[in-house]
Amino acid sequence: MPLIWLRVAVVCYGVGLVYSVLLLSKRGNLLGKLVEPAVGLGLIFHFVSLVESTILVGHLSLASIHYSESLLAFLAMVVFFVFFVGYRTTSPGIIIFPIVFFLTFASAIGQKPVTLTSPLLRNGWIFVHVVLIFTGYAGLFLSFGASLLYLAQERALKSKRQTQLLTWLPPLQTIDDIGYHALLFGFPFMTFGIVTGSVLAIAKYGPMFFYDPKILLSFLMWAVYLLLLYTRWTAGWRGRRAAFLATVAFVVAIGAWAANNFSRVHRFIAS
Amino acid sequence: MKFVLIGVNHRTAPVEVREQFAIPEARLPEAVKELATYPGVEEGLIVSTCNRVELLARTTNGTADLNGFLQQLYGFDPAPYREHLYEYRERDAVRHVFRVASSLDSMVVGEPQILGQVKEAYATARAVGAINSQLDALLTRAFAVAKRVRNETSVATSAVSVASVAVDLAKKIFGNLQGKTVYLVGAGKMCELSARHLLAHGAKQIYVSNRTYDRAAALAKKFNGEAIPFDQLYETIPRADIVISSTGAPHAIFRKEHGERFLSKRRNRPMFFIDIAVPRDIDPEMNKLDGIFVYDIDDLQQVVSSHVADRRVEADRAEAIVQMEVDKFQGRLQTLDVVPTIVSLQEHLETVRQAEIDRVRGRLGTLTPEQELAVEALSRGIINKIMHTPITTLKSAARESAEVTTVIDLVRKLFGLRDARAAAVSHEDDAVTSEKTGARH
């Protein structure tokens, strides 16, 4: 049953994906009126799916990779909506919708879910750790999306041509605010997520846990995150330079995510 | 419906002619009253702006001599200006009113002022009692059409002046201009105009710097701003979010290295430079810096002309809306035409019914309440059956327009009704007079 709801959510998010693609191909906002209700509905189905699968397992747990992908997508969408309510613009969706779609899609088509059997995952603290980290990721995604939009809008303004993009995108200042506030929003989550993760890992593996690729990448991402905020506070970096740093942070984040496959500490499959 | 419209506008008449016809605001109430009481005119409205003078009247039978009225109003013979005057009747008059209110007939199509001006003219005419029935319906509809055009087309959304384009761009950079700082370099007319626009959209602080300090001070005073000596220009400019430059300097006064310094002082907060000087005050290289946006007069003009082209496309869509609305309005008015006839037909037959019942009542003796009801129902039923076809015919004739008057006349003749329309009009007149007397007390 949770899988069915999740697939319904995927279809709804698909509207968001098509919307992004249409906008990028300068087809204007054909789906403009449809996209908010569609992804909103997707979010509700997604929530139902998450709740049901939790009930099915009987307790909060990260029973499978698919579940955690789904959870990350869900949190990214929640963060998107928090900012949508604040700024009344769907434009960061142009980046967020595809990410959310593919994450949800990957988790929804899983025929044979990879079951994570490690007993560690029964621990409630792990769940807290994952939710914190994922919320941090979501903030980072949004900020990354905003910084790309900032570049696009800046270029449109400098080119002095009246493009569709120029009229569709929100003002530069608004995009900048979204990007910055998304960073500020995500940073504490990321920090506490890493702290809880470290504490858990020390408890289980001792200080050696640190030399794991996953862990190293996570700390690197956190450092870039901090650097982003620092340059913003001191030199007011935005635009191209901020977008560059955000891209680095994003790539490292993807790397850290993918590093699950190489990590001893973070694999959670009893072999 | 006997609408007649006569007027001059920016297309048909040069300003020298329009001046002749313009009616000062103070005289307008009196003039419109004169129009409404002119022989053959039932209701009237006058719109007088710098681009147009329009006299709209609903006449008794469509033959009122509005040219005669012009002569009476202006005290000169309008005949020499005949080529500048246009005259619309009925449907064309309705369309013209809709187009004017929707700003499709304006010099700058889509400009928003005209609707307000028509509304004012309407309020003036109403206040002196020159508008009471069908013109009221026409104008109310015209305002609704204007709203529809504004909502459903983008004819009025794009900026078509250099100053308003500058405001639009500033908004695209800063979101809103609330609390933004504007710096004027040079104290020319264009600077002043743009600054006025920016202030109207919420900009807060104005600084003015000019080679002649006195002129800067004078301009700053106008905006409640602050004048800054020209030798402090470079230190003070980083305070500004928006810089408008229009000095007579022979070469650029702001170069890329200046821009870099401004940005580092502002901690990279964006700046918008508007260069309306020729030769240019700002080196275009500065536009390459992250966070600085430079638009010169040509860039702004280019935006203006692309918007003008967009508006033309949208105007076609707007015309289609107007056309549709004219048809709808026409249909409604024609239905209004048959209403008095239907009412008097019903009244007539009801009187007949009552009279017949009264006549036979004596012969029927006392009736039980049930019998009383049955007699009521029987007579009413017959009347309704008889009236059904004539009423449907009248209503459908109203929709099909052409033969409506013939059908009305025929029905009236067949049933021996008195002239319902005349009755209705005289009734309205009574109402207006009593309203006026009411107001006086």
Helix-strand blueprint:
The complex is a heterodimer of chains A (271) and B (441).
Chain A (H helix, E strand, L loop, with lengths): L1 H23 L7 H26 L7 H23 L5 H17 L14 H36 L4 H5 L3 H34 L7 H23 L3 H20 L13
Chain B lengths: L2 E7 L5 H7 L6 H9 L4 E8 L3 E8 L6 H9 L11 E4 H12 L11 H15 L6 H19 L9 H13 L6 E5 L3 H12 L4 E6 L2 H10 L3 E4 L3 H4 L5 E4 L10 H10 L5 E5 L16 E5 H68 L4 H32 L3 H12 L4 H21 L1
Helix pairs in contact in B: 2-5, 4-6, 4-12, 5-6, 6-12, 7-8, 12-13, 12-14, 13-14
Name a few traits of the molecule.
heterodimer; A: 271 residues; mainly alpha; globular; B: 441 residues; alpha/beta; Beta Polymerase, domain 2; Rossmann fold; 3 domains; six-stranded parallel sheet; 15 helices; 10 strands; 57% helix; elongated
Mean of residue pLDDT values of chain A:
79
Say which CATH homologous superfamily of the largest domain in chain B is assigned: Glutamyl-tRNA reductase, N-terminal domain
The total of beta strands of chain B comes to 10
* Shape field of chain A: globular
What Rg of chain B is obtained from the alpha carbons, in whole angstroms? Answer: 32 Å
What's the story with the biggest beta sheet of chain A? none
Write down the overall mean pLDDT of chain B: 84
Order of helices and strands of chain A: HHHHHHHHH
Report the portion of residues of chain B in β strands. Answer: 5-15%
CATH fold category name of the largest domain in chain B? Beta Polymerase, domain 2
Describe this structure in words.
The complex is a heterodimer of chains A (271) and B (441). By secondary structure, chain A is mainly alpha-helical. Chain A folds into two domains: 1-115; 116-271, no CATH class. Chain A has helices at residues 2-24, 32-57, 65-87, 93-109, 124-159, 164-168, 172-205, 213-235, 239-258. By secondary structure, chain B is α/β, with parallel strands linked by helices. Chain B is built from 15 helices and ten strands. Chain B has helices at 15-21, 28-36, 66-74, 90-101, 113-127, 134-152, 162-174, 189-200, 213-222, 233-236, 256-265, 297-364, 369-400, 404-415, 420-440, and strands at residues 3-9, 41-48, 52-59, 86-89, 181-185, 205-210, 226-229, 242-245, 271-275, 292-296. In chain B, the strands form two sheets. Chain B has a six-stranded parallel sheet. In chain B, strands 2-3-1-4 form a four-stranded antiparallel sheet, sandwiched between helices. The longest helix of chain B has 68 residues, at 297-364.
